[in-house]
Write a structure and sequence with these properties.
heterodimer, A: 174 residues, alpha+beta, Ubiquitin-like (UB roll), DNA polymerase, domain 1, 2 domains, 5-stranded mixed β-sheet, 6 helices, globular, B: 773 residues, Aldehyde Oxidoreductase, domain 4, Aldehyde Oxidoreductase, domain 3, 7-stranded mixed β-sheet, 6-stranded mixed β-sheet, binds FE2/S2 (inorganic) cluster
Chain lengths: 174, 773
Amino acid sequence: MDKAPVSFRINGKTWSGSVHPLKRLLDTIREDVGLTGTKEGCGEGECGACTVLLDGSPVMSCLVPTCQAEGKEVTTIEGLVRDGELHPMQDCFIQEGGAQCGICTPGMIMAAVAYANDPDSAEDMREALAGNLCRCTGYTRIYEAVRCAMEKMGDSGRSGKKDEGSRKKKAGAT
Amino acid sequence: MADHTEVTVEGRKVRIRSSESEPLPPYAPSVSVGHPVPRVDAVDKVTGRAVFSTDVRLPNMAHVRFVRSTRVHARVKSIDTAALSSIAGFLALVDPLEMVGKSLKDFLGRELPILTDEPRYFGEELLAVCAETESAARQAVRAIRVEYEDMPFTVDPEECVKAGRFVGGGWSRGKPGRPAVYERGDVAKGFASSDQIFERTYRTAWNVHASLEPHAAVASFENDRWTVWESTQGVFSVRDDLAALLAVPSRRIRVIGTYMGGGFGGKSGAGKYTFLAAYLSKKLARPVRAVQDRSEEFFSPYGRPPSIQKLKVGVRKDGRIMAIEQMGVHATGAYEFGAEWGSAENMLTEMYACDHVRTQSYAALTNTPPSCAMRAPGHAQGAFALEQMIDEIAHALSIDPVEIRLKNLPSRDPESGKTFAGPAGVHGMAECLKKGAELFAWRKKTSETKNDPATPVKRGIGVAAASWSAGGGPPASATLRLFSDGTAELAVGAADIGTGTRTVLAQIAAEETGLRVDDIRVINADTDQTSYTLPSYGSLTLASAGPAVRRASHACRRQILALAEDVLQAPAKSLTLADGKVTRPGSKKKPAESVAIAEFVSLSPSHEIFGRGDREGNPDVAIKAYAAQFAAVSVNVETGVVAIDEWIAVNESGRVVNPRTFESQQIGGVTMGLGMALTEDRVFDGGTGRPLNPNFADYKLPTIQVQPSNFIAVAVDRPTDANVIGAKGLGEPPIIPTAPALANAIHSATGVRIDTLPLSPKGILDALNRAKS
Ligand code: FES
Ligand code: FES
């Protein structure tokens, strides 16, 4: 099959181009749109490094054919900064030391933002982030960063408490 | 410091006198060092601005991929490449003939061919193809037909040893068919004077680094020079490896490794993909990119080899270790390449005081990928055996497991006989054990942890400890340039592999010069812009580069102070440098006065203040870092599932330059240790020799769900006098005690010893069933 026209919004701007409809959205974002903040850790849907938001929901962009983004809104790590201001999730990842080598960080932050925007989308934060692997941090600082951001984002009452409790409950399951 | 080093020059042994290094004032940092400064590169990392090697895209870039062996041991009979010509975008094919004589070399000079037509393991590189796009390169790989003639193979290290196919593991190159033997004292004598002898065989599993960024290189050849972007722990070793492979002077190669996504020992030099990218970039006169798939990360390169360790320890009734005898087998792959990385014996020979020790290391020539350094190579495996054995002995002799370790601490390095680096009078491991025991309430938990026979969930506690040589040392150097706008540029060769190297080095420079951390730009891991340093491995980066940075900064400080004495009309020793200013304190006659450092830079003769620092030699002592970990677990004896209720990690690695990055290293190391302990296991099928789980779905890394709920990581912040910043290494120590601490806790909960990694539910249930029958 040949390339075909495709058009979607990415980080608030319309992007139109011509790509193979089955090209991975990840590759379209990195190669055609030219935004390399979204990373590839496995290409198989197992690590979460490629997480972006598609109409607000987190997807692993290595598993999404580009044609599925047609007419939709894609948000990548580059789209979190608004008017030069970092997103609270980014601020908290800096403050709490949530990034070590940083390769998992964009995907981790996108998954965390999706959860913070809709805490009912998962049982708790651990479940929400269980598909995002990090080989460096051991997750503790990521956990704290996301909690910090959720408090800043103002949904602290509900989600903050939920995750405090779950931290004990779900601990250590293998 | 040792007053000379002995080296061989043109076959002649010569002694080189050690150079005098300028003594620096005692280090008493306050402003920057010792504070949890946020990472200097955090904004780049959270915004996606950080450019990793995999992100480098150059105009007209071509893509290289490998045809890999689908057989475990074979001779290539024929290769059919006819279909290549019909693939749009196909550019070049490289075969083994073109690569004759080209190989990677390990530390002992053993070779691994770049391409081969006699593959000795599944996934070995046979051919390379290059194409306009990544997908065309994949298409080309698929279009090539290879016919093989299979040859006998084995992936089982013990079988290999039985058949005599092994070499000595460890740090010298032994004869084929002979194990490497380490011996001190006389183990027969030691066992004869023991009251009790313990024996057990332990097995550790096959692990892989699993850096989230795969191995990757982009090479371009222009103006007779190569520029290579590589995800690497060591830009200079990549440069030198490439120079040897390309047979050109190393100055014709520039390697840039600014951002890289994790290494853990697996990215220490050039890979086959690096060489192919560099080679083809010249041949095709266009940039070439080589990035491995996740599945390729499981065969190339390699990971932590599995081990089988037969351990025999003799003790006196009072718990004193009298003799240690060990026989270790590990799989090293059929090329002998990297045979040094699997040996577990160092842990046994250096950890405890014991006069009679004998170890034998067998590196089995299995038909598997070669072995590779992976976080605490050897020690992580050795600790699983030794630290469980110590626990077993403690229980048998009714001695507290913490006490028995304290009782056997060496007062000198058991291997070299050298004294330990100061301060004298305290032992880092003792401090870790005591501090951890206190935080964990070890005694209280020991007496209170009881299990109701009626409930299936059993609670238990465990402890384990570690030591690791972590002194760092030369060669390392740094340069610091201060500009008249009040900012500075610190250039160091070291890679920041995620540990925070850039940040802590900026802190050291800020402390010494009085500049703010934010005003110091760190340029690192670029062979053109920074000076030579060893790769960031072996827990040596901070202790090597840190003192060099302090020296470079001190050279700048002296120049600032010389000018400040004149401007502020006060002796240097009364002046303080902080917050971008030099300040003279107030007195009765004159109020305090501050002048910006930028001002002094503009007054300097070159309008720029420059300092260079070289790492001083180490004193002639043993420099070790220490760790102890305490675990509380709940084990469901009906399902075999382990829950971690509490984890305490204590590390003594000298001065803590940044408490936040220090803690992150600890937690990250323990978590990788939990992966090793609980789930990580590369499986090679005995019948076909193939890897069965080269992906993250079946090779299970710890996720955020595994993180213990109650996880405390603390430091014993005790500066060493072995270097001018007082820091030692921290990269590897946190992973070493994790698996045995967990195994000991599982034993405490269930009464059974699990001697095989990973500690899977099945393994636990099997052990429980064996104990019952
Ligand atoms: S790259 Fe998409 S999940 Fe790993
Ligand atoms: S910070 Fe390195 S993988 Fe997460």
